[in-house]
Amino acid sequence: xxxxxxSGLMVTGIMLSKVLxxxxxxxxxxxxxxxxxxxxxxVLDGRLPLRTRxxxxxxxxxxxxxxxxxxxxxxxxxxxxxFIASKRGAGSWVELPARPRQVTPSWSLTPYGxxxxxxxxxxxxxxPGAPTGDLYPAVQAAVARLPExxxxxxxxxxxxxxLRGAIADRYTRRGLPTRADQIMVxxxxxxxxxxxxxxxxxxxxxxxxxxxxxxxIFDAIRQVSCRAVPVALxxxxxxxxxxxxxxAQTAPRLAYFIPDFHNPTGLCMDAExxxxxARLAHRRQTLLLIDESMVELGLEHPAxxxxxxxxxxxxxxxxxxxxxxxxxxxxxxxVGWIRxxxxxxxxxxxxxxxxxxxxxxxxxxxxxxxxxxxxxxxPRRNKELADRRDQLTALVRxxxxxxxxxxxxxxxxxxxxLAAPVxxxxxxxxxxxxxxxxxxxxxxxxxxxxxxxxxxxTLNAEDTVTAVDRLAAAASGMGGAxxxxxxxxxxxx
Length: 493
Ligand SMILES: Cc1ncc(COP(=O)(O)O)c(C=O)c1O
Hints:
The radius of gyration is 23 Å and the shape is globular. Helix content is 41%, strand content 12%. By secondary structure, it is α/β, with parallel strands linked by helices. The chain folds into 3 domains: 4-94, Winged helix-like DNA-binding domain superfamily/Winged helix DNA-binding domain (Arc Repressor Mutant, subunit A), CATH 1.10.10.10; 116-126 and 394-482, Aspartate Aminotransferase, domain 1 (Alpha-Beta Complex), CATH 3.90.1150.10; 132-375, Type I PLP-dependent aspartate aminotransferase-like (Major domain) (Aspartate Aminotransferase, domain 2). It binds pyridoxal-5'-phosphate. Pyridoxal-5'-phosphate (PLP) binds at residues 126-127, 188-190, 214, 258, 263, 291, 293, 324, 326, 331, 336. Keywords: Aminotransferase, DNA-binding, Pyridoxal phosphate, Transcription, Transcription regulation, Transferase.
């Protein structure tokens, strides 16, 4: 499960055993070490939120069918490495070590800087580097435009008109007529998600999400004390009958979908399903949050028109679209946007006023420049991404003959079937070989996807080769009956 309890404060033995999965003890080595290792993975990848209280040793021992001594030894090891803290009378709770020992580096999204960046290869996050050849001129052009903004105070609550207009035009061109006043610029799609949740859901509400899904949606849902209601997304794509039945049964306040080159599967929802989804949300009065972060990353074909295109305005009232420059241009810009009907944006503006007042003007101007060049930049970017996808696919297929590697039509990731429930152990082991991975269960709830691994194809060719070598070394180093079998590199790929 991505998250143990809505409050994030306490986990019972049964809940922890569920999130540990039935597979945690099938590796090599003594049970206490495997238990400690596994809890450590759960902390590092966010499935055990910080300060979650762990079950008492006796309770956990009973639930897992272990001796009390085994759990005590595991807790001692976690305490020793800084992953849990304890206080007499208050029990033990999850912490991050001030200075991680053995486990390096941190799981944070920030560049590690200095020696860590030199040493570690990050395959835990899926975002490409900036197109420097396009970014530098855009920055220069933006700086040249800046003086016209300097005499005013600089607080453009919904974003500068120039950028909102450019974003609206792109929607209109994609088949969803949009005015500038239907756009709010924000600090990336994740900011957009948190604003929408803050404005439109209340504690205890249910939120339908695809399963698997972009992991930080689960974090965001937990933060507002709502409940994620997962709807399976299979290799065949979306099952709208299932979505409809789930919505009918659970009456969610909101449903979150990534229809364009979905993270992590890369799947793209077809035009007919988009229409059905929008109509369903309208009928059920469910707010539909459409995350279009990946929409420009069609590697085989462009995405169909946006959800809501071609439908009456009344149907569009329930729709909120999120966009971002992070995957197309650069995550470091921190520019994204929310598209919705004006009243809806008004409500968002009220909520936003309590947290941040506006987005930086210079970054917005850079985005205007980049959007003006988008039709030139994006095909080049996508060609490079497709080459990287093909290289990574070939390398993984060569080294891991037992894995199933799909051929996604777009997006940034391979959602690999490992054929055995080893993802968390592999991620943990890979850390010791200088490779950061996001284990499959990070993309779901209730410990699902232990047989899956998301590998982003965002690294350059050289790093990709090194990363797959490290992955192979980690898999070989895992030991145990379920360790993936690794073939030698031929050097031909
Ligand atoms: C589907 C999806 N939504 C949102 C985000 C967050 O993007 P941003 O950098 O725009 O906040 C990501 C980043 O990985 C993503 O994959």
